[in-house]
């Protein structure tokens, strides 16, 4: 296993894939009480993490993907931007990309069965529709367009479910950062003609899914060419052959759906990803998830086995399952005995900048970060309330014996009243009895001669009157 690296509460292990802007790592989330979880961590390349424009684009992906909630979309768990590192933490899907599965099938001399292709593409279309319909906090549509739909961005899990991932170059009407003017984003062979001309809509994703479906059924590239210029020319001018023509033996039931999705004019395509999914499901029988899972295991069993070995190694490694690799601020907090030190260490863990609890304790409270000052104030308030509660719980002194000569009531009241800095009065006679009743008196102390009617007690102090050091 390759050397791991700790960033915040995440451990980054071996790379799963690498793209133009980032590398995806297998990782572990480390929490309290030994909690851990396997995740996929997208880590921006250093040259981009230092670029404000690309960094903003990366954070936009997290904002957009976080609004999409659907079982056919890889969910975003967290985003980390700290110490020159930018991480996008996603759920880990045990499986392979559709691109890798198509490559494995070609090496075996096979094509993807029609029902398997229909199930995978319908899942991806449902995920895209969820992204297209995503809304903000006010219920307004975000207008998300993936713009980079391809077999590489469709992950097929061993559970038989396909998921869309990587909204890194997605475009939304209200996004904070826009793509650089004139800069094409996405894979040229999967772009719709209008996307190459600078106009992108949700129907551009429908066209891309038409290309993905054609290649999944036929088993080869639709717009293959030697140069990017030739690829662009084919996308703009070439007419795609029906799958049953390009690959004899393929059911002609798919032809109408594929050719409609590939229409050059957006108005001639399906009006939504959901409409294409419904049409595809109606024209062809979709495989069940367990059938998709069995097919994946058959064509890519070796890859899945190798991945499972790496995963088991990561999850069984003590340094990646126990929170002992967390920053020193957490260790310092656990070793500190006082409540104030614990509060400041917790604040240091959650505050940007210096994460050392020792650094906080070396400063006057007025120089602490805001969150540290708030937590310290909460601890002080809790101590004050505890002191007040003890004062209120002090029991009145009573006696069933007949009155006996002794100090006057005013003298007893004066002796029993606590001072401004003393703890509440403690009745030793009550505490000495196992039953809680007053113990028999053996001396002529003022307590032994206390009248039946207890003298008035002074009122306990309010928290506002407590000493300044609390």
Fold blueprint:
Elements: E1 5-7, E2 10-18, E3 22-30, E4 36-44, H1 46-49, H2 52-65, E5 76-82, E6 85-91, E7 95-97, H3 98-107, H4 114-132, E8 154-157, E9 162-164, H5 193-196, H6 202-218, H7 228-237, H8 243-246, H9 255-261, H10 273-283, H11 289-316, H12 328-335, H13 339-350, H14 357-361, H15 370-392, H16 409-416, H17 428-432
Antiparallel strand pairs: 1-2, 2-3, 3-4, 4-6, 5-6, 7-8, 8-9
Helix pairs in contact: 4-6, 4-10, 6-9, 12-13, 13-15
Provide key terms for this protein.
six-stranded antiparallel beta sheet; 9 strands; 17 helices; single chain; disordered C terminus; alpha+beta; Transferase(Phosphotransferase), domain 1; about 475 residues; 2 domains
The sequence of SSEs as H and E is: EEEEHHEEEHHEEHHHHHHHHHHHHH
Q: Segments where pLDDT lies below 50 for 5+ residues?
A: 321-360, 399-404, 408-453, 462-470
Residues in β-strands, percent? 5-15%
The helix content is 40-55%
**Number of helices, where a helix is a run of at least 4 consecutive DSSP H or I residues:** 17
Query: Based on CA inertia axes, which overall geometry fits?
Result: elongated
Reported CATH architecture of the largest domain: Orthogonal Bundle
* N/C terminus separation: 52 Å
Mean pLDDT: 76
Number of domains: 2
The protein's oligomeric status is single chain
Query: Mind telling me the CATH superfamily name of the largest domain?
Result: Transferase(Phosphotransferase) domain 1
CATH fold-level label of the largest domain: Transferase(Phosphotransferase), domain 1
Q: Name the CATH class of the largest domain.
A: Mainly Alpha
Outline the biggest β-sheet: 6 strands, antiparallel
- Which structural category do the helix and sheet elements fall into? alpha+beta
Q: Could you give the count of β-strands?
A: 9
Q: Please state the CA-atom Rg, rounded to the nearest Å.
A: 35 Å
Main sheet strand line-up: 1-2-3-4-6-5
